[in-house]
């Protein structure tokens, strides 16, 4: 009898012990014992509907967020704001501004054009990226980002940053084109690579139900303009390299190839070339010339570009499809100016933890593409407009202008 009781006690103990182990494993698995953020990494990424496309009302609206400069969240202080507001101002003000923009403008796509996080004051790059992109991730709106010169100054290098960003909810960011695509672009037959991280092309399809519903009618090009470089012993900013321009030219020509028209009585017919927009962080040297030309918006600080001119403007001009380029980097510039038929527009500083100009509200740019109306359906892009919104009491809408318009949309 006694030995049976002992056995029984022993098995109760074993059961309890097993239960204890299971409980620990369960808690670990459900992240009760792990830091909060890692829970997000274990989840499956949420994807927006593919591909990007115009709305049934024939519009596609892009919100450009330039220089969000997110640090550590509530402990990162605002810069260049009135002293009176200093105590209650942090990265969270940038978050609120982003939510305000998303709510008011209801964009179809958000483009973050670099210096998304202010690496030098972010103790953990992953935490900071979650903080920076949270409003976009929560909105369910497709979004994409490229890197500036400050993003990699925390705990991730540029490759890690772009991989991480491409895995966040509703992100359509890509790291780089495939080796196959790059080899086709170079036509060398060798395995080719590209400089930087975050060079990619997104296509926006026509309105649902229209004859362009399965065709790209607007192309978006994203390029990595690098961070810092040393040229002949002198420190300067990064620039877009030859390998990137070669791919860009190829990607543009590929989407301009002749397409068979569905209208048999007119075949073969080349559809009008879809207009394109390009996004990169560091302005090109020619942007300086705009100071002596006409521009719309404010030109309030020197263009902090690279000392190297790699021929970006010539490539863009030779492509023929790029109508607008959207940049960041210089927070106190928010103008659009035209170089050789292409508009170069700054977003204007968005984030409160980045430098700004005292008394000059933080701001964001909106880009609206509109389709032309055919007899009974939407056609290609007819017009591209832009304006800015200020994070002031009136949420002021300023500097509205038409960047491009075409008769092609009407055919
Ligand atoms: C930052 O947000 C707080 C809380 O909403 C607000 O009181 C403060 O005025 C904001 N600061 C700036 C500079 O917008
Ligand atoms: C677009 O593709 C869908 C799905 O393949 C098809 O049902 C539709 O007819 C296509 N529309 C046009 C205009 O080609
Ligand atoms: C095809 O093109 C002809 C000539 O422009 C036009 O009359 C006809 O309506 C078109 N058909 C379709 C289906 O678009
Ligand atoms: C907001 O709008 C009102 C009324 O139009 C105007 O009086 C005020 O100066 C504006 N404030 C700002 C900050 O633009």
What is the CATH class name? Alpha Beta
Structural class: alpha/beta
Query: How many helices?
Result: 8
User: The CATH topology, please?
Assistant: Purple Acid Phosphatase, chain A, domain 2
Spatial sequence of strands, sheet with the most strands = 1-5-6-9-11-13-12-10
Distance between the termini: 98 Å
Give the C-alpha Rg: 25 Å
Overall geometry comes to: globular
CATH superfamily: Metallo-dependent phosphatases
Largest sheet: 8 strands, mixed
Beta-sheet strand percentage? 15-25%
**Ligand species:** 2-acetamido-2-deoxy-beta-D-glucopyranose
H and E order: HHEEHEHEHHEEEEHEEHEEEEEE
Structural write-up:
The chain has one domain: Metallo-dependent phosphatases (Purple Acid Phosphatase, chain A, domain 2). Helix content is 25%, strand content 23%. It has eight helices and 16 strands. It has helices spanning 2-29, 38-42, 91-105, 125-139, 158-166, 179-186, 242-254, 312-319; strands at residues 52-53, 59-65, 109-113, 143-146, 200-205, 216-222, 228-231, 234-237, 276-279, 295-296, 322-327, 336-339, 342-346, 363-373, 378-390, 397-405. The strands form three sheets. The protein has an eight-stranded mixed beta sheet with strand order 1-5-6-9-11-13-12-10. The mean pLDDT is 90. It binds 2-acetamido-2-deoxy-beta-D-glucopyranose (4 copies). One 2-acetamido-2-deoxy-beta-D-glucopyranose (NAG) binds at residues 392-394, 396. Its cofactor is Zn(2+). It holds the Pfam family Metallophos.
For this entry, give a set of tags:
411 residues, alpha/beta, Purple Acid Phosphatase, chain A, domain 2, 25% helix, globular, binds 2-acetamido-2-deoxy-beta-D-glucopyranose
């Amino acid at each position: 009898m006694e030995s049976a009781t002992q056995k029984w006690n022993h098995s109760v103990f074993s059961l309890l012990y097993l239960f204890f182990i299971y409980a620990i494993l369960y808690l670990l698995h459900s992240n009760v014992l792990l830091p909060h953020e890692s829970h997000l990494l274990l989840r499956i990424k949420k994807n927006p509907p593919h591909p990007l496309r115009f709305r049934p009302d024939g519009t596609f609206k892009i919100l450009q967020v330039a220089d969000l400069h997110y640090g550590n969240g509530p402990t990162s202080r605002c810069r260049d704001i009135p002293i009176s507001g200093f105590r209650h101002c942090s990265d969270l003000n940038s978050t609120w501004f982003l939510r305000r923009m998303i709510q008011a403008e209801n964009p179809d796509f958000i483009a973050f054009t670099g210096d998304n996080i202010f690496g030098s004051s972010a103790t953990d790059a992953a935490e900071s990226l979650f903080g920076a992109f949270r409003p976009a991730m929560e909105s369910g709106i497709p979004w994409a980002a490229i890197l500036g010169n400050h993003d990699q100054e925390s705990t991730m290098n540029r490759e890690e940053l772009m991989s991480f960003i491409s895995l966040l909810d509703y992100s359509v960011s890509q790291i780089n084109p495939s080796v196959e695509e790059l080899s086709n672009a170079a036509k060398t037959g060798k395995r080719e690579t590209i400089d930087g991280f975050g060079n990619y092309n997104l296509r926006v399809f026509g309105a649902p139900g229209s004859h362009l519903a399965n065709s790209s009618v607007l192309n978006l090009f994203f390029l990595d303009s690098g961070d810092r470089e040393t040229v002949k012993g002198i420190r300067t900013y990064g620039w877009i390299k030859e390998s990137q321009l070669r791919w860009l030219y190829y990607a543009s020509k590929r989407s301009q190839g002749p397409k068979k028209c569905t209208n048999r009585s007119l075949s073969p017919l080349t559809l009008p070339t879809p207009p394109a927009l390009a996004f990169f962080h560091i302005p090109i040297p020619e942007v300086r010339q705009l100071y002596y030309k006409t521009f719309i918006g404010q030109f309030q600080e020197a263009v902090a570009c690279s000392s190297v001119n790699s021929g970006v403007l010539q490539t863009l001009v030779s492509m023929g499809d790029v109508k607008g380029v959207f940049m960041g980097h210089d927070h106190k510039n928010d103008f659009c100016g035209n170089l050789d038929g292409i508009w170069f527009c700054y977003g204007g500083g968005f984030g409160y933890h980045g430098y700004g100009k005292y008394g000059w509200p933080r701001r964001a740019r909106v880009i609206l593409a509109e389709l032309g109306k055919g007899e009974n359906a939407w056609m290609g892009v007819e017009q591209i407009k832009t304006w800015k919104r200020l994070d002031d009491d009136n949420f002021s809408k300023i500097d509205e202008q038409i960047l491009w318009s075409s008769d092609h949309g009407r055919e």
